[in-house]
Amino acid sequence: KSANPQWREQFDFHYFSDRRDMLDIEVWRKDNKKHEELLGTCQVDITALPMKQTNRLELPLEKHPGSLLMLIAVAPCTGVSISDLCVCPLGDPSERQQISQRYCIKNSFRNIKDIGFLQVKVLKAVDLLAADFSGKSDPFCVLELGNDMLQTHTVYKNLNPEWNKVFTFPIKDIHDVLEVTVFDEDGDKPPDFLGKVAIPLLSV
Question: Which residues form the C2 domain (predicted)?
């Protein structure tokens, strides 16, 4: 019930050099659970923004009244990675020892914001639902921790895909829940949901 909403939400997007350079933003209006209306869209050219500083942007909505006020900072990724199993960041014993030292009890208060990190090896899925008429699916896996999101590549025409990827997330809140969702890629249409599992960090 507001024409001037304030969200004050922060989202972290992991921007890699092989991705598109445009950030697409949509603003939606929701009457109830069934009715939604698009109030406008805008784009931000990430490559045009200065690095390592907070950029204050007032973005007019295309073909609609109103504007969106955002703070966007482009900075080098720290603590986030996607790698293959053969080059797993924790595969080196000396590196594991350094990390154990970094998070030992005597260093607990050295950096309060450095809680730790989570490493997830996404190996494969088994007996997925067939989402295509061919009796197959084009599955990919999305991992979300807080407002961080990373995803695997798509394995086409396969109900037993193997991704063999290693994902590393910085932990910002020990009470966060890791959500792992499998989708079926469906061309230009929204992906189809194939399944989900939620893992509280405190259970690990």
Answer: 1-59, 93-204
Domain containing 101 equals 81-203
Element (H, E) at 96: helix 93-102
Cα torsion at 49, 50, 52, 57 (round to 10°)?
Answer: -50
Dist. CA 135–CA 132, nearest whole Å: 6
Identify the pLDDT of residue 107: 79
- Any idea what the CATH number is for the domain that residue 172 is in? 2.60.40.150
Mean pLDDT, range 60-68, rounded to an integer = 91
Average pLDDT over residues 62-75: 90
43 and 94 assigned to the same domain: no
pTM above 0.90, yes or no: no
- φ, ψ at 56 (rounded to 5°): -90, 115
Mean per-residue pLDDT, 129-149: 90
C-alpha torsion 145→146→147→153, nearest 10: 10
- 153: amino acid identity, one letter: H
From the list 64, 94, 47, 52, the residue with the least C-alpha distance to 3 is 64
Q: Are 180 and 102 members of one domain? A: yes
**Do both 124 and 67 map to the same domain?**
no
